[in-house]
Prior knowledge:
Elements: H1 2-17, E1 44-46, E2 49-51, E3 56-59, E4 62-65, H2 71-91, H3 97-113, H4 124-141, H5 151-157, H6 162-179
Antiparallel strand pairs: 1-2, 3-4
Helix pairs in contact: 2-3, 2-4, 3-4
Protein name: Reverse transcriptase domain-containing protein
Organism: Aldrovandia affinis
Amino acid sequence: MSRISACLADISAWMSTHHLKLNLGKTELLFLPAKGSPMIDASITVEGSTVSPSQSARSLGVTMDNQLCFSSHIAAITRTCRFSLHNIRRIRPFLTQEATQLLVQALVISRLDYCNSLLAGLLACAIKPLQLVQNAAARLVFNQPKFTHVTPLLSSLHWLPIAACIRFKSLVLAFQVARDPSAPPPLAN
Length: 189
């Protein structure tokens, strides 16, 4: 705990010298224990403020939990996307297919794609809610009933299924790192 406190104090000092301020009210402490490790329940103190560990932390719109299962993150994305789909469905009779596709891609597909490479390695059942949202989005674009088969719809929209999209984005990131001349030697070709 003292090493973590010292590290945060160093970060705070660096930020002060660069005319920045560490907002300790928004600082969250997240322990990622190894399998079989006991859960650590210790607080740290920085500049007189106490930071207690939490079960999850949010950064740049992604909610990470201490087990890295991303269940709360997936639930939040699903909830937001379903709300957007519901609103688009209400005005769908007044929209063309192209306008509906633009709305769905802007409000739903962009959320499904955001930081989805973090979900690489999760079980298929964990990402299934995201796939169900994508299926509903494809059906909405083509104004199809609930039980219409979605594979031809996804294909005509040029949308990869969620699992393939996650795999694709992870591979693109790995390719970019491998081709980057400034990458550290273990990562570069």
